[in-house]
Design brief:
The chain is an alpha/beta fold. It has three domains: 336 residues, Rossmann fold (3-Layer(aba) Sandwich), CATH 3.40.50.200; 79 residues, Alpha-Beta Plaits (2-Layer Sandwich), CATH 3.30.70; 169 residues, no CATH class. Helices cover 36% and strands 13% of the residues. A seven-stranded parallel sheet has the order 8-9-7-10-12-13-14, with helices on both faces. It has a four-stranded antiparallel sheet with strand order 4-5-3-6. A hairpin with a 5-residue loop joins strand 4 and strand 5. Helix 7 runs parallel beside helix 10, helix 8 packs parallel to helix 9 and helix 14 packs antiparallel against helix 15. The longest helix is centred in the C-terminal third of the chain and has 23 residues.
Length: 650
């Protein structure tokens, strides 16, 4: 048989089939089981006709404004200073439930567009956190709320909390450019989430289905014999790669009591088949990209349901500069409004050597494990990586459940645990679909900025190689997500300030590392204007000047961030500064006791303002030590425990 070397190969690493019997997750108390498995509405609930509005200082809605918007004067004021406006009850009484919902949302959008409104939103109804009733959801550690407590995972992306706000929308289409789909899988049969796709493979030998391009993207398998693809190439069994990827995004009907869950419950997934035996060609992939985005492809019907997100868990070991055709296809898709999510690759090298991972205008995803660490044994990395997401590791069992820590999803005959950046990318694509359901107007660039802004920062231990903005979090714009970013930013600033203000000064290598973390964390938190100050401080320190010569820049950085932060984020930032000063001062025993006592008092206030809990005992213990004239170094354990306590409260 003629050997073939296609231009692009799947970015799949190793996989392992799950052998554990599927068991329905049943919490012991019956009431809890009923509550958690209670099916909720497909869309977030809110009080029909009520809108919460925060006006900018000195602004108010006039009688003319109220009349034009069809609302009554806001006479109820919340603890946050917002006003509650109502659509007149007489009007609401004439509307159907759907009309009332739409009318309310229309008023919200109209208010958001006003320059005198700080924000506007429906009056949401909250309940307990949602979890799907799919029996193997409990095995999907990668979806769990991020943390170390019961039912949490340090590498989880916090989907149960995110599902309280959005489970997706049928108006958002995610195209999976891959090996096709298994429409007869038990978790997919009858699912409204699978919509019509296309088989874009021209070459009959690669296609393996007896024909060329057509409207049937069913995956016939991609198994090959030894030497079939190229001399020396190994034999490989069927991967069912596209179905595994699509299962993570949400092609199955999540919360259907069968199998596994997907990231987005109500998304529409479109299979675009471009990979077959031995991979796929540039031509097919580039055509698949444009078709998925709703752009014309010669000889192919136009896609009637263009994708807002395109997932490509595939790649080849060439920089994108070597394939301008692929870059052009990506540019066209992004220009039409589709975000393109790609796998970083599985060779444990810099992703700049691979395409499409190194292409412009893509969201390149590295892989993390159960611990939230970069999987250094296979995941690519580097400056071209935008973010990291769960890719799993079938060689580890860090949660000790008896199963390997691969990513569990669908394959022919059931389910399997795979690992690879191929598994990481669809987590990002699925979260993107959730957020587009909430804010359909997000551009691809804005979507990337949101993903990076809400990512959980990683330490140099968690990411010894560059892994982008951090670990994917499905919690968009939540104060708690940004809260920990601001806390960590404050800690670095506190170490710097104390280390530059009191002898013995903090060692120069530690201060330069602090400054680089400040730069990275400030970018994640969305701050601006800090680079020049960081650069100036670094120049001073690296030129051999003493640490106190950088104190002016450090203080300017603190003032800069405090001017830009608000609310909980300002409280967390300032709390971090106080704790950083205390920790550095206790380590060197060079913080005056009177200052340390004042620091602890302020830390208590800022912790309360930031919404933290459980800190009083630590603060009281430290204050007792200081009031008894114990050296400041004696409170280091309490200060360190406080930091760990706050970092663990997402």
């Amino acid at each position: 048989m003629k050997s073939r070397v296609p231009a692009v190969m799947i970015a799949l690493a190793t996989f392992a089939f799950g052998c554990a019997a599927a068991q329905v997750q049943e919490p012991t108390p019956e009431e809890v089981r009923r509550l958690l498995e209670l099916k909720g509405p497909a869309e977030a609930l809110f009080v029909p006709g009520e809108v919460i509005v925060k006006m900018k200082p000195g602004s108010r809605l006039t009688a003319t404004d109220l009349s034009r918007l069809g609302i009554e004067d806001g006479i109820q004021v919340t603890s946050g200073g917002e006003l509650i406006y109502r659509i007149a009850p007489s009007v609401m009484a004439t509307l159907s439930p759907a009309e009332a919902r739409n009318r309310t949302l229309a008023v919200v959008q109209a208010l958001k567009a006003r320059p005198d409104v700080e924000y506007a939103q429906p009056n949401y109804i909250l309940g307990i956190a949602r979890t799907p009733n799919d029996p193997r959801f409990s095995e999907q550690w990668h979806y769990r709320n991020n943390g170390t407590g019961p039912g949490q995972s340090p590498g989880g992306i916090s989907l149960p909390r995110a599902w309280d706000k959005s489970i997706g929308s049928s108006s958002i289409v995610v195209a999976v450019i891959d090996t096709g789909i298994l429409p007869n899988h038990p978790d997919i049969v009858g699912s409204p989430n699978l919509i019509a796709g296309f088989d874009m493979i021209r070459d009959l030998a690669i296609a393996n289905d007896g024909d060329g391009r057509d409207n049937n993207p069913t995956d016939p398998g991609d198994a090959v014999a030894a030497n079939e693809c190229s001399p020396g190439s190994p034999a490989r069994s069927n991967s069912w790669h596209g179905t595994h990827v699509a299962g993570t995004i949400g092609v199955g009907k999540t919360d259907n009591g069968i199998g596994v869950a997907g990231v987005s419950w109500s998304v529409r997934v479109q299979a675009v088949r471009v990979l077959g035996k031995c991979g796929g060609t540039n031509v097919d992939i580039n055509d698949g990209i444009r078709w998925a985005a709703g752009l014309p492809v010669p000889g192919v019907p136009v896609n009637p349901t263009p994708a807002r997100v395109i997932n490509m868990s595939l790649g080849a070991r060439e920089p994108c500069s070597m394939t301008p055709a692929t870059q052009a296809a990506i540019n066209d898709a992004v220009g039409s409004g589709a975000a393109v999510v790609v796998a970083a690759g599985n060779d444990a090298v810099d992703a700049s050597q691979f395409f499409p991972a190194s292409c412009n205008n893509v969201i390149t995803v590295a892989a993390s494990d159960y611990r939230g660490y970069l999987v250094t044994r296979y995941s690519n990395f580097g400056p071209t990586v935008e973010i990291m997401a769960p890719g799993g590791d079938v060689l580890r069992d860090d949660d000790g459940d008896g199963n390997n820590d691969g990513v569990l999803s669908m394959v022919q005959g059931g389910y399997a645990r795979y690992n690879g950046t191929s598994m990481a990318a669809p987590h990002v694509a699925g979260v993107a679909a959730l957020w587009l359901a909430q804010t359909p107007g997000l551009t691809p660039a804005q979507l990337l900025a949101e993903l990076q802004r809400n990512a959980l920062p990683r330490t140099s231990t968690q990411c010894p190689k560059p892994c982008g903005a951090g670990l994917l979090s499905a919690l968009r714009g939540e104060p708690s997500t940004l809260r920990v970013v601001n806390l960590n930013l404050g800690l670095n600033l506190g170490w710097l300030q104390q280390g530059a203000a009191f002898k013995p000064y903090r060692p120069i290598p530690e201060m330069t590392a602090d400054l680089e973390r400040v730069r990275a964390t400030a970018a994640t938190a969305g701050y601006a204007g800090y680079n020049a100050l960081v650069d100036n401080a670094l120049r001073k320190l690296l030129s051999g000047q003493p640490a106190n010569n950088a104190l002016a820049e450090i203080n300017d950085l603190i003032r800069l961030f405090q001017r830009q932060a608000t609310g909980i984020n300002l409280a967390a930032l300032t709390l971090g500064i106080e704790l950083g000063v205390l920790q550095q001062g206790a380590r060197n025993d060079n913080r005056p006791i009177s200052m340390a006592i004042a620091d602890l008092g302020r830390a208590r206030t800022f912790a309360a303002n930031a919404g933290y809990q459980g800190y009083d005992g630590y603060i009281n213990s430290a204050l007792r030590d200081l009031s008894a004239n114990q050296p400041v170094r004696e409170i280091l354990p309490e200060v360190t425990d406080l930091i760990l306590l706050f970092q663990g409260q997402f």
